[in-house]
Amino acid sequence: MNIDVMSNKLINRIFSIILISAVTLASWSCSDDDEGEAIPLPVSPTDITASNPAWAIASFAENGENKTSDFNNSGFEIFSNGDFQILLDGSVDSFGSWSISSDDLVLTISLSNPKPGTSAIDGDWNVTAKSGNALTLRSVAGNSMFQLTK
Q1: Tens digit of pLDDT for each residue in 30-61?
Q2: Which CATH number fits domain 45-149: 3.30.420.40, 1.10.730.10, 2.40.128.270, 3.40.50.2300?
C-alpha cells in the first residue's frame, strides 16, 4: 500500500475519533437531567396578574421532597397592585407583597405574616416555565420549586 494512502487513512481515522469525542462530550454537557441549571425566564406583571388573580398551587417541592400536600385546599391570589394572599379553605391564611427585579428575572414574594405552612413561599424566585395558565418557579437558592396553575 502507498504511504500517502496510509497517511490519509490515519488522518481520517484520527479526525473521526476527535469528531466523535467532541459530539459525545457536547451531548453530555447539554443534559436535561441537571436540575441545578434551570434558566430563568423574563417575567412581567401581566404574566402574573393577567385576567384573573386566582392561582392554585399545583405542586411544591423543597429540598427534593414533594410537599404539595402542605398546600391542599390552598389558593394564591396575586393582585396588580403588588399585593397577594394565600387562601386556605377559602379564608386568608397569609398575605404580603410581590415585586419583579429590574432585570425581570427575579420574582420576590414577601410574606407579611409568615405561617409554618406557607413560609416556604417567602423569598426570591426565578420563573423557569410559563404559559397563560401556568407558572413554574424555582427558588434563587435552588432548593425549592413550585407550580401555579389557573
Answers
A1: 434 444 567 889 988 888 886 678 898 899 99
A2: 2.40.128.270
Parallel, antiparallel or unpaired: strands 54-62 and 123-131: unpaired
Q: In whole numbers, what is the pLDDT of the chain averaged over residues?
A: 80
Backbone region of residue 90 per phi and psi (left: phi > 0; alpha: psi in -120 to 50; beta: other values): left
Residues 6 or more apart whose Cβ sits within 8 Å of residue 69: none
* DSSP result, the chain: --HHHHHHHHHHHHHHHHHHHHHHHHHHHT-TT-GGGPPPBP--HHHHHSS--EEEEEEEEETTEE-GGGGTTEEEEE-TTSEEEEEETTEEEEEEEEEE-TTS--EEEEESS--TTTGGG-EEEEEEEEETTEEEEEETTSSEEEEEE-
The cell for 115 is 405561617
